[in-house]
Write a structure and sequence with these properties.
This protein is of the alpha+beta class. The chain has helices at residues 100-105, 122-127, 134-143, 155-164, 171-178, 182-192, 197-215, 227-236, 242-253, 260-266, and strands at 2-6, 16-23, 31-35, 41-46, 52-56, 64-66, 71-74, 81-85, 90-96, 116-118. It has a six-stranded antiparallel β-sheet, with helices on one face. The termini are close together.
Length: 274
């Protein structure tokens, strides 16, 4: 399995996190890959010859097909998911930062939470057909678009405030900083990411804990994780207790914090996204 990320042009970095490519060798075996909840949305083009399947764990029984030569929009996830690929699969994608997709398209994100829908844009699909030169083509494309979704509120500024707090700020504080009412803030979040601000803050906090656990790696690739260190992390990030941290982590990642060492050793954690 090969996973490649390209950084977008600087002027797009508030809205687009990465352009990415995920492909498997024709002789490889079928595989499954976790997708962690991160508050982002993705446009995904299946450039391969086989159908790829996505199982969002918030909809445990649902398996969504991503057929060849079609473009899809994957929304914000409230739990982890699993991508199931066959040999020779090839996906190309655009990962938008929280609110980034809405900024360009003004399409409310609530209907696509924990889901994937077909996105009809033949011009963009043609741009994503070839791997060579993909970042430059996408930079030119999005650089030419107007930010139609940010007419009233700058969601990127609201999201930055949430990230600066490590997810530990309150919804009331976010509303005060944005100079809007609690109800208006709820509406802004439903439009931009599809989920309430409280849940978004929980995902931000999970991502901060994930970052902290990655930083605990020794040089040999294992993780320094003990019950005591997990308890300290739980207290630092405002969890009620150790159990609260592990339960929320498992919801968003599909594994316990103490299980990360296995995934680092096998290489899965290095490219857990689409």
């Amino acid at each position: 399995m090969v996973y490649i990320e390209h950084v977008p042009a600087r002027e797009l970095s508030d809205y687009i996190a990465a352009y990415w490519i995920r492909k498997s060798e024709a002789t490889a075996e079928s595989s499954g890959r976790r997708v962690y909840a991160d508050g982002c949305a993705d446009l995904i083009f299946n450039a391969g010859s086989s159908t790829v399947y996505f199982n969002p764990k918030a909809r445990a029984e649902e398996v969504i097909p991503l057929d060849p030569r079609r473009l899809y929009l994957g929304g914000t996830m409230t739990a982890y998911g699993v991508v199931l690929s066959k040999p020779g699969s090839a996906l190309r994608g655009i990962r938008f930062r929280p609110g980034g997709f809405y900024a360009f398209y003004a399409m409310t994100m609530e209907p696509v939470v924990d889901g994937v829908i077909e996105f009809h844009d033949d011009d963009l699909k043609r741009l994503m057909e070839k791997e060579v030169g993909l970042p430059d083509r996408l930079n030119n494309w999005f650089g030419s678009l107007s930010l139609v979704g940010n007419a009233n509120h700058d969601f990127s500024a609201i999201a930055r405030a949430a990230y600066r707090s490590g997810g530990k700020t309150s919804v009331d504080m976010l509303a005060t900083q944005a100079n809007v009412s609690h109800r208006t803030l709820e509406r802004i979040f439903k439009q931009n990411v599809g989920i309430p601000p409280k849940e978004f803050l929980q995902i931000v906090r999970f991502q901060e804990v994930l970052k902290r656990l990655r930083q605990a790696r020794r040089g040999n690739g294992s993780l320094i994780i003990s019950e005591e260190s997990l308890f300290r992390i739980a207290v630092e990030f405002g969890y009620y207790d150790h159990a609260h941290l592990t339960n929320e982590f498992k919801k968003y990642a599909g594994i316990l914090p103490s299980e990360l060492s296995h995934f680092y050793k096998t290489g899965i954690a290095g490219s857990q996204y689409f």
